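User: I'm writing a tutorial on reading structure tokens. Could you give me a worked example: one chain, its sequence, then its tokens, then a sentence or two explaining what the tokens reveal?
Assistant: Sure. Here is the example chain.
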Amino acid sequence: MQFGRTYEEFEVGAVYKHWPGKTVTEYDDHLFCLLTMNHHPLHMDINYAENTTDFGKNVVVGNYIYSLLLGMSVEDVSGKAIANLEISSLRHVAPTFHGDTIYGETTVLGKNMTSKPDRGVVEVETIGYKQDGTIVCIFRRKVMVPTQEYLDARGGDQPGRPTPIPREK
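And here are its predicted structure tokens:
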């Protein structure tokens, strides 16, 4: 199983479909709101949402959806990252509700070497969409990733990983 990519492994135009999806529960939404101190009643108060908003029900907080998609993309995009450099755009284009399942995919938009020959910057766009295909979130980011030379100089893909001690029988 691959976790992230080296600079050489990224190809402009490549699309990575992140799997599996995640069904968003009321608990997920409320916990994220509580952890981030976002107590807006649109997310936390069913009575308010049903009687006051255009949606008629609670809307999942957008930053949870963004965070979920960012996490989904790590295995394919930034698992080997040296640094996450920039989020250049973030748009929430449709609401997500409790019970919706979110899927994501990332397209490689560009890549450039840095002034150091052992790393480069990759620009990607990630979209998130619901079970019916409705796009809910789009964001672009730049990630500094190592070359294979960088990894080799530091002990490979998983430096510092211990070797298991055999169990006695």
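What the tokens reveal: The two ends are 30 Å apart (CA to CA). The beta strands are 15-23, 83-92, 101-113, 119-129, 135-146.
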